[in-house]
Design brief:
With about 550 residues, this protein is of the alpha+beta class. About 40% of the residues lie in helices and about 25% in strands.
Length: about 550
């Protein structure tokens, strides 16, 4: 069959007028015909719908100028357009993705096939273009790409968490473990990182690691490490709230300058922000179920993506793992010191008891049995006290659950003082409604320890005050005795440490009372310290206030 044959002659090929009409009007693929210059000669109705243009707007127009575009909507240079080249050269072309404008102003991705088409009895060469909408295919591709990206991100984060655990378990040296963690996070998750640890008594902060991105790794800024002053108890600075037990916080570009308040940060605290810059920051607590140990600070420059809620969750998990690692390392060191000091404290009275009993057996005629038994009972009583106190310490440091309730500490102190008989008088000045959330038995133990200790060292009087100070409940116990030298004010909270004056006044003490008291304070997210006083010793117990009433 040739182009000059009549339609009736096409019947042998299966053609009919109905089929031609169905092919033209019902074909679910766009179709247009162009001459060798690219001028549109014919379009089908589906092309009108797909391109959102009426046929009259397309007929006679240059197909390239009217329709062909890059994915971003910019014009395609004529010399770079493979479809236009196919028109002029009369060759077959197929493209899996080309972009076209729509009459509404939007863009549509198309799959396109171009085939040469003889026109005018074969004298001129044109082309027929078939095209279909790739939008659904693109949507599926985007979904698949998004799913793959999410899977890769999840895999990367799981890998980072695994590496975090490995790094933190690689050494029991806390500072070294935290430096290694900082190097892991920079530049993988941050452009710079810092880690601050609270001092044991909570009155200061030690910056133990600062790592800054340099190329594909990080370098340490040791000159920025070292002790930092504590925030005021009333400070609402984000870092202060995190160190007091608040949740991890995220700062974006808009609120970073406002919320990192220069007035709340000294020069050393602000130096990384001022000298390195930050476009997005996360501050997360190094937390355990028992306490907050410090904070992890990660920052990104303006050239890096802004942190989002997923990053906040990830960094919070990393900081929690770091907190547990620090706590475990501290507990390991504590256990070693505990075993050493306990064996010494138990061995000494046991050795004396053994020597006394052996003497009684070897020289029965020279030893008073009743006196030997009394001495043995005294040693046994002291050993029993030590063991009981050690059990209390072990329970506190294990962080086991305790029943907490709202307690009026002013009323509690007054009740404990009233129950004391004889001895040095105690004067109480207790404010009303100074309420804390705590374990009653544990707080009674702290108060009794402080009262007994103060009366033991006082000359004539003990003063106790209870009130609200800088947002906390403050219980202050002062005596008028010899006091405690500044260099000994932390030592007395260590296990089995007893100053000479204490040994003289109470030879049989265990040396664990103040250690237990401080651990109870820490278990209640509080502090127990010794402060300056004109005369005698001044112990201050600070506990978080609660709005709940007993």
């Amino acid at each position: 069959m040739t182009a000059s044959d009549d339609l009736e002659d096409w019947a042998g090929y299966g053609f009919s007028a109905e089929l031609v009409r169905a092919l033209f009007h019902g074909l679910r693929v766009g179709l247009y015909v162009v001459d060798h210059t690219g001028k549109i000669l014919l379009v089908n109705p589906y092309a009108e719908r797909l391109l959102d243009r009426p046929a009259r707007q397309m007929l006679g127009a240059d197909a390239h100028d009217l329709l062909h575009r890059n994915a971003d909507g910019s014009p395609v240079p004529r010399e770079d357009c493979q479809i236009l080249a196919a028109f002029s050269e009369g060759v077959y072309v197929r493209s899996d993705e080309l972009w076209s404008t729509r009459g509404s102003g939007g863009m549509v991705p198309l799959g396109v096939m171009v085939a040469p088409l003889p026109l005018g009895g074969g004298k001129d060469m044109g082309s027929v273009v078939l095209f279909y909408d790739l939008s659904r295919h693109k949507a599926v591709e985007h979904k698949q790409a998004a799913a793959l990206a999410a899977l890769k991100k999840l895999t990367d984060r799981l890998s980072l968490m695994a590496e975090t655990s490995t790094v933190l378990a690689s050494t029991l040296k806390v500072d070294e473990a935290l430096r290694r963690l900082s190097h892991l996070l920079v530049p993988r998750l941050a452009d710079w990182a810092m880690i601050d640890l609270l001092s044991p008594n909570g009155d200061g902060v030690d910056r133990v690691a600062v790592v800054v991105k340099q190329g594909q790794s990080g370098i340490e800024y040791k000159q920025w490490e070292g002790p930092l002053p504590a925030f005021p108890e009333t400070s609402q600075a984000p870092m202060a709230r995190v160190l007091r037990g608040g949740p991890a916080v995220l700062f974006g570009p808009k609120d970073l300058a406002e919320r990192i308040d220069p007035e709340e940060y000294n020069v050393q605290r602000r130096r990384p922000y001022d000298e390195l810059g930050a476009h997005s920051v996360i501050i997360a607590p190094l937390r355990t179920p028992r306490r907050v140990l410090g904070a992890l600070i990660l920052a990104r420059y303006e050239t890096s993506p802004v942190y989002d809620s997923a990053d906040l969750s990830l960094v919070g998990d990393i900081a929690s793992r770091a907190g547990l690692a620090v706590d475990n390392a501290d507990m390991f060191k504590e256990q070693r010191r505990f075993a050493s000091s306990t064996s010494h404290e138990l061995r000494t009275p046991l050795a004396g008891l053994r020597a006394r009993l052996e003497e009684a057996m070897l020289y029965p005629a020279d030893v008073d049995p009743h006196e030997t038994i009394r001495e043995a009972l005294a040693v046994t009583e002291r050993l029993e006290t030590i063991v009981d106190d050690l059990l209390v310490l072990a329970r506190l440091r294990a962080g086991g659950p305790a029943a907490y309730e709202p307690i009026d500490v002013g009323a509690l102190v007054a009740k404990e003082v009233a129950a004391m008989a004889g001895g040095v008088p105690v004067h109480v000045d207790a404010g009303r409604d100074v309420n804390v959330l705590g374990n009653r038995i544990q707080l009674i133990r702290v108060i009794d320890n402080l009262l007994v200790n103060a009366r033991r060292h006082a000359d004539k009087r003990v003063e106790v005050t209870v009130g609200r100070v800088e947002g906390s409940a403050a219980i202050t116990v002062c005596d008028d005795g010899a006091g405690i030298a500044p260099q000994d004010r932390e030592r007395v909270f260590e296990r089995f440490v007893r100053l000479d004056e204490g040994r003289r006044r109470e030879p049989g003490g265990s040396g664990l009372g103040l250690a237990i008291s401080r651990d109870i304070a820490h278990a209640h997210n509080g502090t127990l310290t010794i402060e300056d006083s004109p005369r005698g010793a001044r112990f201050v117990l600070r506990l978080p206030l609660t709005d709940r009433h007993p």
